[in-house]
Fold this protein.
Amino acid sequence: MSTNLQVEKKSKTIGIFRKPLTQEKKDRIAGYLYISPFFILFGVFGVFPIFFTAYVSLNKWDILGTKSFIGMKNYALLMGDPVFWKSIGNTFSIWFLSTLPQLFLALVLAFILNQAFIKGKDFFRLSVFIPNITSVVAVAIIFGAIFGENYGILNYLLSFIGIDPVNWTGTLLGTHAAISIMVMWRWMGYNSIIYLAALQSIPKDLYEAATIDGANKIQQFFKITIPMIRPMIIFTVIVSTIGGMQIFSEPLIFSGAGGGSFNQGLTITLYLYEEAFVRNNFGYASAVAWVLFIIIVIFSLVNLFITKRINSTE
Amino acid sequence: MKTKFGIAKVMLMISSMLLLLVIVACSESEESSSSDSNSNGDVAKLTVWLWPGMGIEEQIEQYDEEHENVEVEIQLAEFADVHSNLTTSLAAGSGAPDISAVEVKGINKYIGNPQHFVNLFDLGAEEVADDYLDWKFKQAQTIDGEYLLGLPTDIGPQAMAYRTDVFEEAGLPTDREEVAELIQTWEDYIEVGKTIKEKTGKALIDDAGGLYTVVEGQGEKKYYDAEGNIIIESNEQIDYAYNLATEVIESGLESGFEQWSTEWGTGMTNGDFATLLAPAWMMGFMQENAPDASGKWDIAKLPGETSGNWGGSFLTIPEQSDHPEEAYELIKWLLSPEQQLVTFERNGNFPSTPEIYETDAIQNFKSEYFSGAPVGQIYAEAAKDVSEVLEGPDSITIEEVLKDAIIRVRDGQGSPEESWQQSIDELERTLGR
């Protein structure tokens, strides 16, 4: 009985090789081959590190020596680590301070750029986008000089309106404001280009009708522009949220690896970096990475929920 | 039809040959610009990782030019990045350079895992051991003395740089002998600071964190005892250094410039602070960061009983190097007493080879930048009472966390006691991981 079955199986497998492939099968194989580079790269650089990080987070490891398995201890320590909670607070504070004004200003900027009376549109469009492609490190160094306490330009300018020098790096609010301004400067142009594209898809006759009805520019902005580009606004909010959770270079250069003396500039990713590459606690850093991952997942779900509700009200 | 095809083929051949020619020309010019080595093959390519301010780049280039069998490429990165990049590439098993600089606190991180480096004893480092200060040479060895990770570059004996113009304005003596006489202890130092503040309104010191490091380095022990136990809370020198640093802050004698910040150099140029506590290698940093202040600074003996040591580095050869022999020849030459003398004369990094301390070249060496001060003699004198200070695997973290306590006091984030306790708590958490 069993031998019979085996023989049958064998003949089947041989049969595959004997018969020429049908066109449909060839197409299928070709299709998978075409998309395979992405999946291979994603597997090597995306999926594998995620699971390897999970494994490392259960160990105590300084990467030069050997790993020792400690179970969930890293997570337990993490939950009781005030610096970690502070870094989460900082991340949200910086995200909030940078994203909200940034998106609003980007929208206003895009609205202005979209006006008919502006000359040299291409020049301005290029100008607003340039900050985005500038090296973050260079930006952070320049901003570090601008926000200097003693010889910084900003404090110099503030002195004209009678404000005492602000210790930007040494106060919580000063650090968050400075980092937020850096983030805003860098990403405002990017968002306004996206908004600009959305604005240009709005039919002109809506504005013409509004003008005839006597609506002024500000009324047009709030009553026509914003409702019409709502999907783009949702998109930028989601992208900024994910980006905001991962703010790294700006605080690193501005406040140093520890995020300042009382961790005023320490974001989650910066804490992760410091634990891994400065203090060489790779197990602990991996645990931070996983918690960050979970936070981003939760936020994405919240975003999704809000987006769905907005769409359903339309 | 046939001829047409032929023409196309010929055109293709010509254009590809032209392309090839251009590529060859490009790579040839690149080769000749980097070094005029023979193109016979046997050239060992050595990459060297350094951070800015080490002052040995020129000599490495000179070695590159003089030796046809090696081609050296120097890659500069920030101090902290050199160490973290090295750790990562050692762990990854690839990407490490042939030679990397490692600072004294950094070398202690690697000593526990020496297999990542070439054992320099295998390459004959025993024969040059006598050239170097005994304690310094031992710092790069494993505890059993079997394994040597690196050869010593410089040491950091300390002195006090001061602005003669600010001292004059405050009605204080400006002669370096008299200044040393005036400021013998750290208590004198603070008194002088108060006078300066009163008369000129200027600060005494750039950064109290620097004061902390210097005073801490004057002690016999730092964070670790000989058995490797952490002794931060029982070490009185640390307590003394911390109290001194916070006292300077609370009396308003600190300028608020953070060391290594962008505006630090500006403050140095303008004389916003009257003194800067300077290990020998700081001279190079000062000349680089404040070139316009030449002739306004002078150097005197450090307050306190001993000079102490701050920093100093090693050159190591990671195990991944394909050319450990050539790399060793380079660092042996570069760190020989003769070449360390050259580095000192150019950049101020003080040699770790005691035999040259008494030579005329050091004793008579004067610095124009420091108003003609006999810096060779001053630092050689200071180097005499530098003794071994034990560092441990977590020295870098401990120093960073303790200095944060001082910065918090400056930024008004709590009293010195609260801030200290906060750092101790953080250390307990961090080192327990």
